[in-house]
Design goal:
- The chain is globular.
- The strands form three sheets. A five-stranded mixed β-sheet has the order 3-2-1-4-5, sandwiched between helices.
- The chain has 14 helices and twelve strands.
- The chain has 389 residues and is α/β, with parallel strands linked by helices.
- The relative contact order is 0.18.
- The protein folds into two domains: 157 residues, ATPase, nucleotide binding domain (Nucleotidyltransferase, domain 5), CATH 3.30.420; 209 residues, Nucleotidyltransferase, domain 5.
- Helix 6 runs parallel beside helix 9 and helix 7 packs across helix 10.
- The structure holds 5'-O-[(R)-(carboxyoxy)(hydroxy)phosphoryl]adenosine and zinc ion.
- The site of zinc ion (ZN) has 6 residues, from helix 4.
Length: 389
């Protein structure tokens, strides 16, 4: 079946066309118009500005998506749109357009949960079977349930257990900031711009510290001396940020204290902002603190629920350190568990993941439900706080 996917929940106007059959998703096009430049001036996404941009871009992006896929409206079998959660003014644009197209073209329409989309990005790959064989230990070429998925995006940090397709149990989540939100806020404190994740990851690469070296007393030991002359001198600074809830008994997270620790560090040592090497050190330690907590909680959940597959999802899953270190940890502690990560192209917001999730939803629907979906153009409503069920 050919699915048109539309995603406008935040600051990307994204449209995709996929051809999907029996769980194999072939991407025919993945068109994205990013608004990063516009929002970076404000240090974050401004909902009404985002909506205006979506309105301006949505039709050209749809045209581009269809043209790239060499697909005409009559070839489309299903339209899928992000229904929520997200910014309401932004969601309204995508939902209005999707409803209009479904009405005019007489197509069934499905509203998809944004996080469900992120999770199903793991099922999109040019060769999903081969991918699994290479990376997983099962060898059967199928992603096996139960799946434990670590969802890490700008708005969510959750551990989700899936016993079967479209069946979600949230077994842990952040009590305050999401991981991506912490990256964005810390980047703002360090004047690194928006979005913070890629900027911090880039800086951290300039000053890699091993998790072993990072152990030691919390806080910032050693006085800054400017100018910094050698790398060794920085290594001696032994920056140690907190790892909130690392050892707590439950599977929840908290990142706001970590962000505040960076804020106080900079307030106490304002010269940090003028020194690129120290900024890299702070980025490196901050990133490692987030990665440490995410990995520790994922392993704790794996210990308890014994999944056959562990997956990553959401924008922060583009983080190379997280991808690499989680892989090592799983290999060491759970060698019989497969580890699946989305292509980085589908880690951050995109519409391919929305179409992919719609394929699996459609597959579970009976005739009556599919017939009902033909009338969704009249009833679908976006929801800012849509729940994952
Ligand atoms: O999933 P996403 O694109 O949008 C939401 O659903 O929120 O995630 C965006 C988040 C932002 O907070 C961004 O800073 C973070 O993902 N992000 C990263 C990286 N790339 C994007 N965080 C850490 N490392 C990255 N490489
Ligand atoms: Zn997202």
């Amino acid at each position: 079946m050919v699915i048109l996917g539309i995603e406008t929940s935040c600051d990307d106007t994204a449209v995709s066309v996929v051809e999907a059959e029996k769980g194999i998703i072939k991407v025919l096009s993945n068109a994205v118009s990013s608004q990063i430049k516009l929002h970076s001036q404000w240090g974050g996404v401004v909902p009404n500005l985002a909506a205006r941009e979506h309105l301006k871009n949505i039709i050209p992006v749809i045209k581009a998506g269809l043209a790239k896929a060499k697909i005409k409206p009559e070839d489309i079998d299903l339209i899928a749109v992000t229904q929520g959660p997200g910014l309401i003014p932004a969601l309204m644009v995508g939902n209005s357009v999707a409803k209009t197209l479904a009405y005019i073209w007489q197509k069934p329409l499905l509203g998809i949960h944004h996080i469900e989309g992120h999770i199903y990005a793991n099922f999109v790959h040019p060769h999903p079977t081969l991918y699994h064989r290479e990376r997983g230990s099962g060898g059967e070429g199928k992603i096996k349930f139960p799946i434990l998925c670590l969802v890490v995006s700008g708005g969510h940090t959750q551990l989700v257990l899936m016993k079967k397709h479209l069946d979600y149990k949230i077994i842990g989540e952040t009590l305050d900031d999401a991981a991506g939100e912490a990256f964005d806020k810390v980047a703002r404190i360090l004047n690194l711009g928006y979005p913070g994740g890629p900027a911090i990851a880039q800086r951290a690469m300039e000053f890699p510290i091993s998790p072993v070296k990072a152990s030691g007393p919390r806080g910032f030991t050693g006085n800054f001396q400017f100018p910094i002359k050698s790398k060794l001198q920085i290594t001696n600074y032994k920056l140690r940020l907190p790892r909130p809830m690392l050892n707590s008994k439950n599977l929840n997270f908290s990142f706001s204290g970590l962000k505040t620790a960076v804020l106080y560090l900079v307030k106490k040592n304002p010269k940090i902002l003028k020194n690129k090497k120290i900024i890299s050190l702070v980025c490196s330690e901050f990133q490692q603190a987030v990665v440490d907590v995410l990995i520790a909680k994922t392993l704790k959940a794996a210990e308890k629920y014994r999944p056959r597959t562990i997956m990553l999802a959401g924008g922060v899953s583009a983080n190379q350190e997280l991808r690499k270190q989680l892989k090592q940890a799983i290999k060491q502690d759970f060698p019989n568990t497969s580890y699946i990560i989305p292509d980085t192209l589908y880690s951050i917001d995109n519409a391919v993941m929305i179409a992919a999730a719609a394929h699996f939803r459609w597959g579970k629907m009976n005739k009556t439900k599919r017939k009902k979906a033909e009338k969704n153009w009249s009833i679908l409503e976006p929801s800012a706080n849509l729940k994952l069920v």
